[in-house]
Amino acid sequence: MQYLQKLKQFFNCSLQNEASIKDEAKLSKNKEIPSQFQIWKFYLKFMKIDWRGFFIINLNLIICSLILAYEPFLMIEIKQNLQEENYSEVQYLLFYYVACQIIEQILHFQELQYYFNTSDLARQRIQKSILEHLFSLDIQFFEDNKVTYLSNIVQEGAEQITSEISYGKFTKIFNKYTEIVSQLIFVYCQSPQILSLVCIIATIGTIINIIINKKKQNSEKKTEFQNEYKIFALDDIITNIHLIKIFKKEENEIENLTKIINQNSKNQNQIEYLKQLKYLIRNFCFHAMKLGIILLLVISGLDNSQNKKIIINSLAELLVYVYSTILLSKDISKLIVSKPAKYYHKKYKYIGKVMRLFQVKPKITDNYTTNQNNQPIQYLLGSIKFENVSFKYPLATDSFFKQKKFDRQDSEVDSDNSDSESSLSECRQHIDNCNYLDGYCGADNKLDQVKLINQQDQNKLQRKYVLQNINFEIKPGQLIAFVGMSGSGKSTLVKLIERYYDVDEGVIMLDDKNIKDIPLKNLRGSIGLVNQEPSLFDNDIEYNITYGCQDGKYTQQELRQICDVSGVSEFVFDEERFPEGLKTLVGPKGIKLSGGQKQRIAIARALMKKPSILILDEATSSLDAQSEHLVQKYIDQLVGYRGITIIVIAHRLSTIAKSDVIYVMENGEIKEYGNHSQLITQDGVYKRLVYHQIQIQTS
Ligand SMILES: Nc1ncnc2c1ncn2[C@@H]1O[C@H](COP(=O)(O)OP(=O)(O)OP(=O)(O)O)[C@@H](O)[C@H]1O
């Protein structure tokens, strides 16, 4: 009864599967899934053939496959000679057989050696080109995509492409078919009727295998997406472990994670069930063939006892070949299943993702990259001019995995197929509408409904201008400040000066040149930035401070001076707390340092770069008053001596009182500007901010 139910379930699923296959074909048309031609064209990017390796690997494989194909016939010959008691010939044939085996093993060993060497080189080359492409992408891409996901693409993608473009790929397929054909010829030589029987049963087995494979791939596709969801949820929760501990939410999170982890157990079970079913069918086919062969022998043996004797003698051997023919029919069925569908399989999924990654193109382009790479930075003089600049953040269009809220309270994700059709078409429409470059993970999943943003949502999400009609001019060597309420657009302004984004309207001029015409190397090389949340590498303090030094050149004297003025010396040379001094490891993201220490290192790093424009975005917010005063003193010196342009963004208004010009921002607009004494006399936003801060301090 249970079995019947499962069978019914299976065929129901197959019907639904049919529909999803049709949809897949539609998707293929929509270029959501690459065609085989596109896949091969893509592989060409990474191909660099070492002809010697190519020749040796393929020649060895061809010789091995010919030896393998000849083996059954050699066995027949040995047996015939044994029956005829021709022992000298048997000896000779046995020697020949052993020699073939030894040659095959030697060739195989040599092929493997070449294979590993060439694969290693190919993997390095592929990894490098994926990284080169990834690093050429805009900051926005990294803001929209999860780091775990991108690092997986680089690692796994390179691995999978390497195995796909290995030199022996085609020859191995050729080997497989030579083996099948030789075995079929062997069976034919024994008895044509038996061959017909083998062919009929193998064809039935292959067809059933194809159906099961397609069904399995459908489940794998869903599992794949849910696995990614699991990884992101785990990543999110473990990254916030401090928060979880402080709120004593361990139990809740464990419960939520367990729910998320167990979400796709239904799919996993189905995959296992289908695997078992395939195994069962293979065995069933084999037994059916065995029975059929015996029946044939009995029928034919009634009137031909000689024939019967010969055939019975080789029955065991025959069955071995019949069995391996069935095993090979498994490979045929895999080949017949559409190649793109294979890309949902965990063995191939990252190839599709790498293809997607290469479809993403940077919007911030630099025509000078190739020419300027080996030339030294040409520092800017430091004048900045904004002319009628307006800007809004673009929508995330190149997200591999859309930013999704992990709804842990209701994390039950129904992986049932019951209403997959409606969600499927809806999601397909979302894909068309959004033109999102989503991974090849299944869209026929409820999760995708959450994941993809439809046209309506897009309209709602139409971003507002973050900066509107901004005009200002900064001369080289000036000290300029931007103040304003949180969210008024100050940091965005800095991002535009660094050209992490291009403006929507207006123009930004640096040294009287449009920012778009300045090589990125010169632009970013001339800017030193310290932002609100300093990022540090998991390395020692010295490495972090000297990271921006051109060609890694600096003197210990310079380093010491910068450490002194940025306040790093104050803690780093304290032998009790930092016995290793500048060689102290800071831990991931500088976790072993305090907020103020991290900020001082970031300030030292920016100063070591000797920039012509220094941007301090809330750079001293975690420093105590004394340290801030020290940094401030050095900044004043810099302005005086080196003519460096300094832009300060600060909420603490005492920090900016000495600025040449203070720009006051509100809702993405500059509301007023002037120096401190001018602004304080006006009855405007600045005066209100100053009084507000004084009030807080006195109370
Ligand atoms: N990467 C981003 N994508 C989309 N919107 C963003 C992004 N970064 C900032 N914003 C939005 O732009 C607006 C201005 O943000 P910005 O960080 O420039 O403000 P701010 O004045 O520097 O604030 P604060 O003083 O709190 O740092 C905010 O409404 C914010 O939500």
Kindly describe this structure.
- By secondary structure, this protein is α/β, with parallel strands linked by helices.
- Among the domains are: 35-190, ABC transporter type 1, transmembrane domain (ABC transporter transmembrane region fold), CATH 1.20.1560.10; 377-394 and 465-526 and 611-699, Rossmann fold (3-Layer(aba) Sandwich), CATH 3.40.50; 395-461, no CATH class; 534-609, P-loop containing nucleotide triphosphate hydrolases (Rossmann fold, 3-Layer(aba) Sandwich), CATH 3.40.50.
- The chain is 62% helix and 8% strand.
- It contains 27 helices and ten strands.
- The chain has helices at 2-29, 36-44, 51-83, 87-136, 139-144, 147-164, 169-190, 192-239, 241-246, 250-262, 265-301, 305-313, 315-336, 349-359, 369-372, 420-434, 446-451, 455-461, 490-497, 520-525, 541-545, 556-566, 569-572, 595-608, 625-642, 676-681, 685-698; strands at 384-391, 467-474, 479-484, 505-510, 513-514, 527-530, 613-617, 645-649, 661-666, 669-674.
- Strands 6-7-8-3-9-10 form a six-stranded mixed β-sheet, with helices on both faces. Strands 2-1-4-5 form a four-stranded antiparallel β-sheet, covered by helices on one side.
- β9 and β10 form a beta hairpin.
- α4 packs antiparallel against α6, α7 (169-190) runs antiparallel to α13 (315-336) and α11 (265-301) packs antiparallel against α13 (315-336).
- The relative contact order is 0.08.
- Adenosine-5'-triphosphate is lined by residues 143, 393, 466, 484, 486-492.
